[in-house]
Amino acid sequence: MPRDPTVNPKLTRLRRACDMCSQRKVKCDEAGPPCRPCSELNVECTFKRELKRRGPPNKHAEAARAARRQRIEPGMGGSPTTAAFTSYGAAVTPSPSPHNAAQALVSIAEGPGRLDAEAIAPLPILELLIDDFFTYIHPLAPFPHEPTFRHSFANREDRTNPEFLGLLSSMIASLVSSFPRSARQHLKTQHSTHLFPRAIVMIERCRDIALDTRGPRWALKQKTLDDAATSYFLGLAAGYTFQVPRFRYFMSECLSLIRELGFHRPKHPNELPTFGNDNCSPDPLPFHHIKDQIGKRIFWCLLLGVRSFSQLGASHADLVIAPSTPGLPYPALPENVDDLYIMANEIVYPPESSVTLLTGFRFAVDIYTTMNAIVSVELVYGMSTLPWSDQRSLLRDALIAAKDIIDRLPPELQLSASHEQSSGFGTLEDADLQYVPPAYPSSQPPNDVRNVIKNHPQRRRQLQYEIQKANIYISQMATRSFYVELYFNLRDVHVSDPNKEEQVGDSAEDAEAARVFELMTAERELIVQNLLHVLGSISQRNLEPNGGSLINKVRQVASTLLNDAPERKGPVAMKSEEALVKLIDVLLKLEGTGPSGSNIAGENMTPQDEEEEMRNWAHLRDYQQRFAAHGDFAGNI
User: Is the predicted pLDDT of residue 532 greater than 50, yes or no?
Assistant: First the structure.
């Protein structure tokens, strides 16, 4: 007998309520989405909440899920960095587990969008760190474009643009690794030292955020100059904390991005590579001067880093930047113009005699490009394949070229010839300026450098010149020391070679060999004198902000001079041995109290640690003043 539909009709299962109605516990109609309550509230009508199974939990399913979590997340939560993340966990909250494949894909794709700048540090601290970056780091690594960056930060692009957030994170990482006391002061002033007990914790935090912003499909996306700059700063932070494999990785990544963005074969003969054209755009766009200048600055800064690293003993094959050739030339040097006068559609050039922040950067490039011929031979054949006379000539020419650069410096970037007028201890009002530890809750003392440049903005540019001056003189001295040491090492190989061809009766060849030997021997003595002069002329306030690089170079030069064979040392070197031993000891202690060294990431930076750091800087300052007082008579120190 057929069933009567009017009697006990079959019930229809209603659709489940939307997320908002379920949370408010109100009736959700089937008119949507959006449903009527969500429409009235003008909110999004979603169905993303996870459905819960009725009844007691299934023990077999729970065991399977626990085993899967163990496989996916081995050892999570045990590292100091993880502990630091959880201590400031409000910025990065874990997302709920998705309940279907589509939602999982959406959550993965949108993951970096949940981060913003406050995942790095509270906003007031972050603003101060950005100011410090452009004061202390930007003179030596002049990117990103400061007006553009500050405009983007003011508009909070860190919330909408993952590339910008990654760049910001990497900039803070490089600042903290190079100048850890800067971050420590700001954290203490804001009662936030618990967030990052050691500099290395903050550096790793910034690195992790920068990598998180890239997302899983970063390798397939169209790269930008912000990506290249991010890789450079991450590599710089790794280098300053002695993480050499990571340094190589990020610098190699930066080089690959620069090649992709413009460092490739020019379209027309006799043209140089540029970065101002968008080759991926379907429509031709106007030439972008900001992109072009920033791309060139990144390339040349990368070249300087690779050359400097090779002087410390790294192989030229570790990170290969092929020599410039007519068919594949290097980009031109960036224009000698400050960021404020570089706009997207034009560059406003200053008078020729003007000294900008790019002036010192271009002189630093000139110093390291004196290595071009040596690097080219080393990469293609190896120096040992050349005759001794050619090796000798290459090193002599490179040394002379490096020495000539100092003679071309403008007055703003020159060290005074006399110790009394040097920038480090020239005037009484400047003599006691230094970076002092944070004094919170008391106010900072009047001799703190930050107070001075805050109250006198014109002093900021002068401080930046002094930082560039320290970098130029120390880099030039390290490069000269590299040439002299390489000459004597190659000469020892030549002299001890039993198969070398004896030049009989070649008086011209013998005379040239004697002249070069005399030049290199005198240069070694001159480097000792210059080292003492430079250290007596550059104060802590100009050395500390980039101490990770400059202190390492000074220590390398001093160690090379000290560890030479006795027969190579002249009277000045012999007389200065005790001073060099004490200097190296102080520099090693400073490296130990830096962002890495013996510091343990999980321990707090105690007042005793800060006192030790200040004591080490005071010891270095004491030796600097003695160098300045005794001049070239280092044996009396």
Answer: yes
Residue-wise DSSP of 7-20: SSPPPPPPPPPPHH
Complete DSSP assignment for 549-604: HHHHHHHHHHHHHHTS-GGG--HHHHHTHHHHHHHHHHHHHHHHTSSSTT--TTS-
Burial 500-535 (b: 16+ CB within 10 A, else e): eeeeeeeeeeeeebeebeeebbebbbbbbebbbbbb
pTM: 0.76
What are the backbone dihedrals phi and psi of residue 94, each rounded to the nearest 5 degrees, phi first?
-70, 140
Q: How far separated are the first and last CA of the chain, in Å rounded?
A: 118
Q: SS3 of 207, please?
A: helix
Q: How big is the CA angle at 252 (ends 223 and 224), to the nearest 5 degrees? A: 15
> What pLDDT does 414 receive?
92
Asked whether 319 and 375 are in contact (CB, 8 A), the reply is no
Residue 593: closest CA among 622, 559, 619, 562: 619
| Rounded Cα distance, 118 and 115, in Å | 8
Helix axis angle for 372-380 and 388-407, nearest 10°, is 150
Helices (H), 383-425: 388-407
Distance (Å, whole) CA 183 – CA 47: 44
* Interatomic CA distance for residues 380 and 403, integer angstroms: 26
User: In 3D, which of 453, 466, 460, 455 has the Cα closest to residue 426?
Assistant: 466
pLDDT, tens only, 353-380: 899 999 999 999 999 999 999 999 998 8
Euclidean distance between CA atoms 304 and 237, whole angstroms:
15
CA R_g for the chain: 30
The Cα 284–Cα 24 span in angstroms is 53
- Tens digits of per-residue pLDDT, 48-76? 877 766 667 676 777 777 777 666 554 44
Q: Which residues pair with 448 in a beta bridge?
A: 434
Query: DSSP 3-state assignment of 36?
Result: helix
H or E stretch covering 208: helix 199-212
Helix axes 507-537 and 458-496, enclosed angle (nearest 10): 150
